[in-house]
Design goal:
The chain has 305 residues and is mostly helical. The protein contains 15 helices and no strands.
């Protein structure tokens, strides 16, 4: 009762509750300091890795904390070797092809399951899809399945098993269900079939959610590591993440990684940091192009038919 009376008196004096008043300069300074420390803590490892990848050989060998002279020798040596380049090409193929096929399969399945009244057996299929989110076959049954399908030592073994994510399918299905039903019925009255409605109306309206789910798929395919260790034995088919593990964590020397035959190989630390940069930067460059779809998706989801 006393607290309620004090709050009401403060509201009467200031016109608004105490928690809505602007903080004092001391509080704002403390908040700014904490945020600055968090930003520095998160950015320093990234900046250090990038800087060391460009460090001059003599500074890298001296063990400096942060280089002041820079060189492109590490990147020249990596691209001359060809192993990392092949890994980047493999990951790029897996990411692009896998993302396109996954979006096509997931959106098609989601559209069928979003229309449970029109599609016979849609509820049963939906239950089976949801069951995959809670129950997994295990490593050995999955390995035997890939073997019997003839996908061992093939890049398709990294695409086909994860072609459809149950979680992503549920998200797209919920987005389809929130589309204006009047628009679908109007197209059907005009004589449009299911495929035409799906391709000409549903997919164009679903660009935000497809962009977000495509980003999720792309990140998953680009970071493929464990399945590649299980299913891929040929080093020429390794994705970049396995190459990263072999030449950074395991400390294996990158074959052919020299700037020129008459120059010594760059220090191992600069080669390792350069591989990390090459494995990280490509997928980071995708985020700025899809950022606007996140906001657009929120606005589109708020529109009611």
């Amino acid at each position: 009762m006393a607290t309620t009376t004090m709050t009401r008196s403060r509201q009467a004096e200031g016109g608004r509750p105490p928690w809505m008043n602007p903080p004092s300069p001391l509080v704002r300074g403390i908040k700014a300091l904490v945020i600055a420390l968090i930003v520095i803590t998160m950015l320093y490892p990234l900046v250090y890795v990038i800087a060391m990848s460009f460090a001059a050989p003599e500074q890298a060998r001296s063990g400096v904390v942060f280089p002041t002279r820079y060189s492109l020798d590490a990147y020249r040596a990596i691209f001359n070797g060809g192993t990392v380049t092949q890994g980047l090409q493999n990951s790029l193929f897996i990411t692009v092809v896998g993302t396109v096929l996954s979006l096509a399969a997931t959106s098609t399945l989601a559209w069928g399951l979003a229309r449970t009244r029109q599609v016979p057996g849609a509820k049963a299929v939906l239950i089976m899809v949801l069951a995959t989110m809670f129950f997994g076959a295990g490593i050995i049954p999955n390995f035997m399945l890939i073997k019997y399908l003839g996908l061992l030592d093939s890049t398709w073994s990294l695409i086909v098993p994860g072609l459809i994510s149950a979680f992503n399918m549920i998200v797209i299905r919920n987005f389809f269900q929130n589309l204006p039903e009047e628009l679908i019925e109007a197209a059907r009255i005009d004589g449009a079939g299911e495929w035409r409605i799906f391709l000409r109306i549903v997919l164009p309206l679903s660009k935000p959610v497809l962009a977000v789910m495509g980003l999720f798929y792309a990140v998953g395919y680009w970071n493929t590591y464990f399945n590649a260790l299980l299913y891929i034995n040929d080093s020429e088919k390794w994705p970049i993440q396995v190459v990263l593990q072999q030449y950074v964590l395991a400390g294996v020397a990158i074959p052919g990684a020299v700037v020129s035959p008459d120059q010594p190989a760059p220090p191992g630390v600069t080669l390792q940091m350069a591989v990390i940069v090459l494995a990280t930067v490509p997928i980071l460059l995708v985020y700025p192009f899809l950022q606007r779809y996140f906001t657009s998706g929120v606005l589109t989801g708020a529109i009611k038919g």
